[in-house]
Each structure stands twice: as structure tokens, then as C-alpha cells.
Predict the structure.
Amino acid sequence: MKKKKGRGPKVNQKQERQQPVTKKLENKASKSQALEGQVQERQEAGTGDKVFEERLSRHHDELRWLYMELYGNGSMFAELCENLYTFYKERNSSLKESDLEREKNTDWYQQNDMLGMMFYVDNFAENMSGVKEKLGYLEKSNVNYIHLMPFLETPEGRSDGGYAVSDFRKVQEKLGTMDDLEQLTAACHRRKINVCMDFVMNHTSEEHEWARKARQGDGEYMSRYFFYDNASIPEEYEKTVPQVFPTTAPGNFTWLQDAGHYVLTTFYPYQWDLNYQNPRVFNEMMYNFLYLVNRGIDIIRIDAVPYIWKELGTPCRNLKQVHTIVRMMRMVSEIVCPGVLLLGEVVMEPAKVVPYFGTVEKPECHMLYNVTTMATTWHTVATRDTRLLKKQLDIVNGLPKDYVFLNYLRCHDDIGWGLDYGTLQGEGMGERSHKEYLNQYFLGHTGESRSRGELYNADPVTGDARFCGTTASMCGVEKAGFEQDEEEMDKAISLDVMLHAYMFMQSGIPVLYSGDEIGQVNDYSYKEDPNKAEDSRYIHRGVMNWELAEKIQQKDSVEGRIFNRLSCLEKIRKTEKVFVNQADTKTVDTKDTSVLCIERSLKDDKIIGIFNFSEAEKIAHIEETDGDYQDMLSGGKVKAFDVKLPGYGFYWLKRINPSIS
Ligand code: GLC
């Protein structure tokens, strides 16, 4: 084995990265000319493609500028451009058609018809072809966007739910093949369903070909990761880099006994962080990205995006180079596949999230998760106090309307308590004690809690812990079902449906986790699987229970009550234009801290949603005197004035006959 000192891989990196400035400039001119030469050659030979050349020329200068700034490597840039063309040529005609269509209607995903659902392929329908068989159910659930949770090859038992990819071009055998994926995406497109997948670009599995070669001491491949032959630099990093999994995978480095090196592993020890300082890594990962979107993927979820650039002496999160990379990725996609959306997974406080949208001239991600709103929602459930949520919604509503958020009540990951503690402190709530309160509450130990679930990564040092559970279990469906308490079940279902109604009222794209539409509860069977037992996130990643799903036909069943009420709301959302992203959205004071009111208006249309976060009957002291209102669910005429709501009740009211002022 080749042993290297300190930052061993630099030898290779140097070859690709470091060139004198004058050389860089020469490169810049000559490569730019060379590229133009290629474009011209293609045009003269009649082999070029006008659409592609036009898109490339639109982005070329900025892309080149950023690339050279980061890597100073003209030949690698030229290689990238050549491959963009190759991937463009490979893209099939129906995807190209959809690209052109979407280029004309760039706000196609900001409409009121979008509803997402995420699921693991095997949990949902065994395999890719199984999912194809279930498209009817998805349509019935009003879903037109499915997020297939990680399905690429990953080592069994060392997969982090598929987020440790060992081959970016191979589907896990048990789920099918790339062909099956293409057939599934084509079938989805025929039904106007968009398909989203994860692109895990921060790291690879230790079983990935690059990692295996790196482990054997091949410098070329070591340079694609962060290898150190002694602890001194890793120790320096540890001084400034926080831990992601303090309990299940403490620290940020893993010692590889056989290789005699430390390797950077921000997440699990078997997930090796890629080194984006190496342009080979960037180029190859862009090729993987394009290969995948050419299989018919519409939405790419960029996993763990804030982490992709590392710099000693920093927290290695949200560094400015991350934005350069995401911006370049956006341009790459606009050149090759402009119909594809980038969804950034940025689980950070609001100030860190929003920059990932980029600017109007230089956009980065199309969509981001509304993570703080999600966490604040559950804080509101536990406290019955909507004030913090109102403040959070006011912040989001004040952002440009082109920013599209993905709204969700929970996903496949834990709920981290990233709240605005500055504000809570003003109310006398300390961060640590409040987090403890929330965790105890959702464990079902405190107050008026009906929740069930488990802690995740409880850190004994910081006292921090996150929470896992399905929406239904956190709302009390599990407890009431177990205790066969009908009254409690009514409350649980009311809370569950009210939370969805409130989520649908927000601007953006609502996304459900599969099973939530029928109130599926926690699944404790993961504890019996040694590959999963350590990771409580599996409690809310259970197998879809199709027997329960059958029960949606029975109006009085728990499944039927939840499914049908959600379905009704989803259909209203799809038909009322006022739910588009461009509508004005604001909160309205109700003079009762447990009642939240959201108003949406678009031209002459106006609707208001009123949500009671308490189990007690409440009155929303609102005074909407600008016309008559109609209950959008029952169709009955109502006054939007001192509205009485049952415990966990809600109203969606629509203004009819606006009074002329
Ligand atoms: C993302 C995923 C999470 C995974 C992590 C590491 O945060 O959502 O499930 O553990 O990335 O890839």
C-alpha cells in the first residue's frame, strides 16, 4: 500500500488544480477558443444542435468563470462541456419535448395542482414495476409528484437508508433495473406524474469503486476523498466541525486500519465525503447526475447540500463554494435538461436556507424544504401556542414568491428542534429545557400529550435529541387505537386532518409521506432487524399496509376518515387558483393564541384558513367584513366574523360576493 504523508492526495490534486495564474489565463483564452471551435465545427458539419448550442452559449461565460475560479483547469472545463453535449444527445425526444415546454412555462411547478408523496420503493410496492401497478392509487390520492427514496445500489446493512451509494448507475437488484426505472418514469409521465429521486453527492459508500481503489492506496482515487495518514489534521477539523450523528456515528473521521489512513466521514463511517476541490469529482458527479435525469427524472433532491465543500478551520457547512457548485449544477441542468428541477435538502435555520435559492439572475435551487416551519408546527402542537408559528409564517410569506418551498409535516428523517430560540427565550423558555419538553411531550410523557414515538440521536453531552414518529402516531391515532378509545380517536383524527389542512394552506408544494394519507402508525419491527435497530428513523419508514389502504372505502374507518377528508381538501386545492405560489399569503390575528389564521388572495379571490391548535373549543376573533363567505368544505354560507371552532377544528372559507368598496 502506498502510504502518503498528511494530505496525501494533494499530489494528484495539484496536477489537476494548481496552475500558475498566467497559465490559467492562457488556458482560459485558448480553451474558450477551442470550445467555440467545437461549436462552430459542429455547426458547419451540420451535426450541432441549435437548441443545445443556444443554451450553452447563454450560460457558457458564467459557467466557465465559476469553474475557472474554483478549479483553474481549462481542459477539465472543456471536457465537461463536451460531455454536456453527449448527455444532451442521449436524452430521449419526449424528455427534450418536455424540456422545451417547461422552458416556455418556467412556473409550471408553482401551480396549485402539485401534491407530492415520498416512499421507499420496496416499502410501497416491492419494486419499480410494483410502483407502476400502483399509479392508480397515487392518482386516487391526488398525487402528481412521487419521490422515490434512495434506490441506487447500496451495501446491505451499511446503507443509511440508501444514502450510501455504491453505484450511481445501478438500481438495487431487489428493486429492478435502470430499464424498469425508465419504464416507470415514462408511465408516470403519461399520467402527468413527476418523479423525484435523491442525488447523494456529498459522499459515496465505502463500497463505491472509487472508495475501494482509494482504500488500496491509489492516489488518483484517494484524491477524490479526504485521506490523512495521521490524526493531526483530523483533530484540527474536529475543533470546528459539529457532529451530525453524535450518538449513532460520533466524530467526523474514520480510521481505516487496513489503509493506514483516516478518511473524512461526516455521516456514517461507511459514507466517505467526496472532495469537491478535485475537479474530477465535480465532473464525474455531474455526469452521474445527467445520466440519472436522462432516465426520466423530473426532480433531483440534492442530498445534504450544505456539506459539499470542506475547509479546515470552518464548520464545513454552507461555505461559499457550495453555492458556486450548486449554481454550476443549475447551469448544467439548464443546458442539458431544463425541465429538471433541483430540490435542495438544506436542514438549517432560515437565514442559511434561503441563500440556496440564489438570486433572480443567478438562481441555484428551484425548491427547498420548509424545515423550520415543519419543526415549528410540532412545537405549536405541543404548546397550543401559535405565536412562534405565526412569526415563522410571516417570515416565509415575506420572501419573494418565486421561492418555492416544499411543505411537509414529516419526512423519512427525524424532526430536529431547530426553532427560533431567541424569541422563545423572551418567553422564558430556554433552548435545552424546551427541547427536552418537546421530546418528552412527543414521547407521550408530558402534559396533554397523546403522541407516540422515539428519540433520535440523543446526545448526552449537549442534551440534544431529535424525534421520530409518523404524523398519525404523533397526533394520537396510535394511542387511541391501542386503547380503543373512540373519543380520543376523534381528537387524534381531527388534529391530523387539521394539520394537513393548515399545511395545504401554505404556499409551495405539499408533500406527504406515504401511509400518512391513511393514518398509518409507527412500525416498531425495525428493532428486530440488526441492520436497522440502531436507527430509530425506521420507526416512521414502515411498509405500506395495503390491507389498511383498502379500508378507505369504509367511511367510518380511521383510514377512510383521514383519506377522504384529505382527498376533499386536495381536490379543492387543485381547483382553486388562489392556491398558486404567486398568491399573496399572510397571517391574520385571531386574538386567541391557539388559533392560527392564514389568508390567501389572488386578484379578486380571497380565502381564509382558520386552525385551532387546541383541543378546546375556541373563537377566532376575526372581522372579515368585505363580503360573504362560504365554507369551502360544506358549501354553506357563513360569516367570517368571530368564528367558533371545535377542538382541533378548522375552516377554509372563501369570499363570495365581495362588497364593492
Ligand atoms: C440526508 C438524508 C438522511 C441521510 C443523510 C446522509 O440528510 O435525508 O436520511 O442520513 O442525508 O446522507
